[in-house]
Structures are given as structure tokens and as C-alpha cells.
Specification:
Bound molecules: ligand C2E, calcium ion
Number of strands: 9
Distance between the termini: 69 Å
Strand content: 15-25%
Organism: Sphingomonas ginsenosidivorax
Number of helices: 12
Oligomer: single chain
Helix content: 40-55%
Order of helices and strands: HEEEHHEHHEHHEHEHHEHEH
Strand order of the largest sheet: 1-2-4-5-6-7-8-9
Protein name: EAL domain-containing protein
């Protein structure tokens, strides 16, 4: 039994070593990814709930490594977030997104900013400078942040959001419902819309609880004058239910997976229904 016990301990240790080694490989790989041209952006359409036409796109980063093939952002973003790499990566994403936007007509692009980017010194000035340099209207850039980014230091976050909004940027609160936000606090933040997390959309047809949560978020958003983007919409049943419930915008595989900038440009004027 003792030997078995040690075996388990050893296995566990090796597992941890493997985890740390993987992290280090990701960190060092990521620090070279930009120079090696391994990063790219894809764009997923956001459609209006009313007319079902494409009004914007969410920019999502992709990392295709020479050594291991594609690595998911769900894996490498948290690792970048824990090191300073997130700043370089984030700057690349923003510059690239703005560059692509120059070739598009009126659609907005929604860019994800991690909590650490958002809390960076002079975040507002940094964004404004990038947008001015690119010659893009601030109203065409939607800044996506999560609840984690704003609820740690709510006062400072409220100030940052207020400034961004004053300058004309749109603000979306991402993954809404999964974090720690108090509904009461939501009204203190200058926001344009709430994005309902996919996990609630998934559950809509299956559990009454999820459907109730989705309806509550839509109701709350409307009462506060905010837009509602339902994300991870995969089926026609979800589309109908969400339109009926009053979601102002929909996003998900039902309409399109994230695609290259060229394909997105072709989609820019697409109507999906009617
Ligand atoms: P997110 O911001 O919640 O983005 C939505 C994720 O759901 C994306 O995964 C998207 O491809 C996926 N998705 C959209 N519609 C559907 C659907 O109908 N079904 C399913 N199964 N999935 C759908 P992705 O691209 O793998 O990104 C994962 C996460 O990585 C993002 O979650 C975001 O937190 C982060 N991320 C991606 N790109 C960036 C970036 O440029 N900067 C930062 N800071 N984070 C990013
Ligand atoms: Ca997002
Ligand atoms: Ca999300
Ligand atoms: Ca998410």
C-alpha cells in the first residue's frame, strides 16, 4: 500500500512538473509568436435581433504554433495574463483589428481586453492614441471587458469607463452572469451593453433556471437602457426564443463561426433572415 501511495505522489508531482513545463513553453513561445507571425485575428459577426443583419464583429485571437499546431486562447490568454505578455499581445490585437477596420464600411469591432490590460496605467490614453493613429472613429470600437476587470477596484474602473464612453467608445460587459457583479452596482458603470454568457444560452431549452436567468438579464438590461448581446447562439430555437425575449443582438455558430477578415468583409452586408 505504501508503494502504491508513493506512486500516486510521484505521478502527481510529475503531473505538476508537466503543468509548469507546459506553462513555460507557452510563455516562451508566446513571447516570440508575434515576430514569427504565428498570431492572427478572426472575426465573428454580431447580428441585430430585430433585422438579423450584421452590425459588428467580435475580434478573436488565434495562435497557430509551428511546433504544436493551434493553441486555444482559452489556454494561452490566462497564461499571458499572468505575465506581462498580455500587454504586447493585446497591443498586437488592437493594432491589427484597427487595421482591418479601415477596409470595412460602418460595422463596429468588439475587442476583448483582459483585466490586466484594463487596469494598465493610462489605458484610456493608450486606446485613444491607437485609434487616432489608425484614423478610426471611436464609436466603431467596442471594448469588451469582464466583470473581474471592474469589480476589484470599482471606483477606478467606473472612472476609466466613464472616460472611455465620453470619448465615444462602446463598452460591453462580457460573460455577464458568470462573475461576481452585483446587479445593484451595474448602474454605476458607463456601459452600452451586456453580453449574456453562452452557458445560460446553452441551458435555455433544457432548464427553466437558465431561461429565467436569460429573461432576467434581458429585462434588467432593457430597464437600464443597455443593449443585450446573447452569445453562443447555436440553434434556430434559441434564435426565436431570444428574439421573442427581446435580446437586441445575437452572436454564435448559428450565424457564423469566427472567420478571416476577408470572409467577414463579405458578410458585412449579409441579412440572415427575411
Ligand atoms: P469570449 O470572449 O467569451 O469569446 C467567445 C468564445 O466563444 C470564442 O472562443 C468564440 O469562438 C466562441 N463561440 C462563439 N459562438 C459560439 C457558439 O455558438 N458555440 C460555441 N461552442 N462557441 C462559440 P475563442 O475564440 O476560443 O476564445 C475563447 C476566449 O479567449 C474568449 O472568450 C476570450 O475570453 C479569450 N480571447 C479570445 N481572443 C482574445 C483577445 O484578443 N484578447 C483577450 N484578452 N482575450 C481573448
Ligand atoms: Ca468576448
Ligand atoms: Ca463572452
Ligand atoms: Ca467566455
Amino acid at each position: 500500500a505504501k508503494r502504491g501511495g508513493r506512486g500516486i505522489v510521484r505521478l502527481f508531482d510529475e503531473g505538476m512538473d508537466e503543468g509548469i513545463r507546459f506553462r513555460r513553453r507557452v510563455e516562451s513561445g508566446l513571447s516570440q509568436a508575434i515576430d514569427k507571425g504565428e498570431l492572427s485575428l478572426v472575426f465573428q459577426p454580431i447580428v441585430s435581433g430585430a433585422a438579423i443583419e450584421v452590425v459588428g464583429f467580435e475580434a478573436l485571437v488565434r495562435w497557430n504554433t509551428r511546433e504544436y499546431g493551434p493553441i486555444s486562447p482559452a489556454t494561452f490568454i490566462p497564461i499571458a495574463e499572468e505575465s506581462n505578455l498580455i500587454h504586447e499581445l493585446g497591443d498586437w490585437v488592437l493594432t491589427q483589428a484597427l487595421d482591418v477596420m479601415k477596409q470595412w464600411p460602418g460595422q463596429y469591432v468588439s475587442v476583448n481586453f483582459s483585466p490586466r490590460q484594463f487596469r494598465r496605467h493610462n489605458f484610456v490614453g493608450h486606446i485613444m492614441e491607437s485609434v487616432l493613429r489608425a484614423g478610426i472613429e471611436p464609436a466603431r470600437l467596442q471594448i469588451e471587458i469582464t466583470e473581474t476587470a471592474i469589480f476589484d477596484d470599482a471606483e477606478r474602473a467606473a472612472d476609466t469607463l466613464y472616460k472611455l464612453r465620453q470619448m465615444g467608445f462602446r463598452i460591453a460587459l462580457d460573460d455577464f452572469g458568470t462573475g461576481y457583479s452585483s446587479l445593484y452596482n451595474i448602474r454605476k458603470f458607463a456601459l452600452d451593453c451586456l453580453k449574456i454568457d453562452k452557458s445560460f444560452i446553452d441551458g435555455m431549452g433544457r432548464e427553466r433556471e437558465s431561461a429565467a436567468i436569460v429573461h432576467s438579464i434581458i429585462h434588467l438590461g432593457r430597464a437600464l437602457g443597455l443593449g443585450i448581446i446573447a452569445e453562443g447562439v447555436e440553434t434556430e430555437v434559441q434564435v426565436q426564443a431570444l428574439r421573442l425575449a427581446g435580446a437586441s443582438h445575437l452572436q454564435g455558430y448559428f450565424f457564423s463561426r469566427p472567420v478571416t477578415a476577408d470572409l467577414a468583409a463579405e458578410m458585412a452586408a449579409t441579412r440572415f433572415i427575411g
